Task: structure prediction
Amino acid sequence: MNILGISSNYHDSSAALVVNGKVVASGAEERFSREKHDPSYPFFAINFCLERANISAEQIDLVAYHEDPINKFSRNLMSTLVNWPHSRSTFVHAMKEVITSGFWIRHEIAKKLNISPRKIVYIPHHLSHAAHTFLTSGFDKAAILTLDAVGEWTSTAIFYGDRDNKNECIKPVKLVAFPHSLGLVYSAFTGFLGFKVNSGESSTMALAAFGKPTYADEVRKIIYPVVGGTFETDLSYFDFSQIDGLPLTQKFIDVFGQPRPYKNKLSFSCFNPEAQKTEYSEDEIRYANIAASIQLVLEEIVLHLVKLTKEITKSDNLCLAGGVVLNCVSNSKILSSKIFKNVYCPPDPGDGGGAMGAALYLASKKNEVIDHKSFSPFLGQSHSTDQFELMLKDLDPSNWHYFSRLPLKPIKKENIKVVKFKNQDELVEKTADLLANKKIVGWAQGNFENGPRALGARSILIDPSDVDLAQRLSKAVKLRAPFRPYACSLTAEAANLALEFPTEQGAPQLAKWMLCALKVKEPFQQKLKGAIHVDKTTRAQIVEFNEQPLYHKLLSAYEKRTGLGALLNTSFNESGFPIVNTPTEALLMFSRTSLDALVVENLLIERV
Amino acid sequence: MLRKLFIVYITPRIWKLFPNRIPRALQEFSIIEKDSGCQLLWALEHIEDPTSRAHIYQHVLEEFFHSEIFEDLSSSYSKDYLARQLPPREILISKKSSRYEINSFFAFAHVGEDDVNREFSYYINTPIDKKINAVFSRVAQDEKNHIYGTDDILRDLTKDTKYLYEFLVLKSKWKRRVNEIKNATVFVGEHLLNFTLSAIYYTLGFFAARTIKKRFHKIDDVVMLEMLKQQEADV
Result:
């Protein structure tokens, strides 16, 4: 049975295809459309999935849509009218969205795919999340916790997953109803701190490490756990009836002060923290303290929910999903609490993974045997470089600097060297040489990885010990604020040497896909200096040879040169753009930034 | 002509009266430029001639840069983050496009570049803000080359069929005019819809707000759980 999963109409639209219980393709629309967090109908992602499986739209048996638009409509309608008469603009905006697409999504999909609307099934949003994490986890039985902003009427949910239960393999146990939402509160603080809502939450988490949780008691008045239950929110601090601007009331401003204007730069830096400016402005300290406070309270509530989940389900296994789960610091707290023996989270736990979750859920409902081993983050598109290579000869790099926001030096055609490698080992050795010689290398190989983290398929790599290089990467390539730390890829051997694991079981599964922050051991802090935060943790990715042979080879080759199989790994994208997909997109970034070299499949393009 | 009059005489007055419209309007240019770059990026996959590919690559590079400078300009007028409001995307070209569709795409791109260049020249001379004039002036310089670049590619693609070039250009001009009328209709329609929805909001709210408030606060975890179980059963 061919089941297509679709998520769209909010943010991070995506598509995934499940064929006879196996996930054969998956991709976010943003990777194809080049619009970050693209909410549009995933036209390109669907085409890619069908092409990968070599089937046409007529051969799709069922389509699973990641939420129920009718329930979403009822929430939008009620939540806007509840603020009557102050919510006209949100009402108009929400209803227009419903009229133009949301409500008719079944017919829109049917029309676009030229299939019967009867083939389209709505899967509740949190059930899609739950299925995504549980059915890819490999656990036979597990507790499932989904932590999100909102999906239909639910913000948080606890499920129990049991593969042997054919009728109800994912059973809802406890829910938190909108508007009480951990995700919405964290996002409101993110907006307050001057970062983009639904994308700048990682900046709030990064900023938290510079502050002290002096506002924690104030935040606990806004969101607080309920004894024997979940949590509640004091809604008097928020005004969700605003379309533009922050959803905060005067009460919130009275407690936390004025919000940070987004254009004001923060002077915190995770590079060389001991040498950095010691006297920050009062406002900067206030923002960092507020970030630390909301982060602390988030961790408290998450732990409260994890305990509750354990009490209800009595399981040893926990599967996590939802946008809040991208908070790697909070995930580390879950691991070190040891409430659950095994903790799993897919690499794309947010709405991008909803399409796959919906398709898997429907497949399980149709009694398909779900093959969790078919799942991997590397289910995206791959490309040949034949035509790309031919184009390189005719490019004129002399004016590239003229079309960049960065102060680039003009280069001549002869300054660009292109080498095609016949042997993969030679390519790896040459790349390791470049990295050891302090070059910033763009690395694009094979199928792209799903989810917001670059896992070595579309990554920018540098020497992790060089702080100056990491700073150059932030300034001249990524246009990234210096308080945001980088992540790090390590071989399993290097990870055992350099990292402290939260439990005696060794490397946690979450560290396979950069979903937790791990403490770096004292002797290795210098070696990973460019990739650690001020709290001496790093967002680690532990690379196994059997899963990523080429990337593992590169890390091993690098180890021969430097003594540690670890590289600073950041996503291969420019500020404001999604991670690159095609070789041409990788080259565009090379042209517009100070990347020193680009390795696309077997081609090396280098500035000399 | 009407467009020119609108940009030169009306726009500066509207922007002066409602300065909060400036960032949104500039962001629209950023979205258009990026969309143009993306469409060309997709078109690139259909072009075999390496020289033409290199030209298109350069074109994409420039469009992305223009998008960024419009975005930066937009931010300079805005106090808050302005979420990108993407219009419904029109996919002009995809992997499955036929030869004719590819030719049509380049004709449409060529005519579009010509239109954009003309429009930008109006903004250069519009008395708004020197900062805005300067950006339009900078972008317009590149856009001129885009007209010739797309023209060259289109001529090359259609060289084997007599009058195909002329036909496609004419067809694209017609399509753009139809689109302009369609957009104007959508613009008017959207305002009418806003008005209607506002009327519904006040009427519905007047009669039902109290009941909805009561019901809204009654929706708790237990009700939700039942609802989800029902939904699950429906699947």
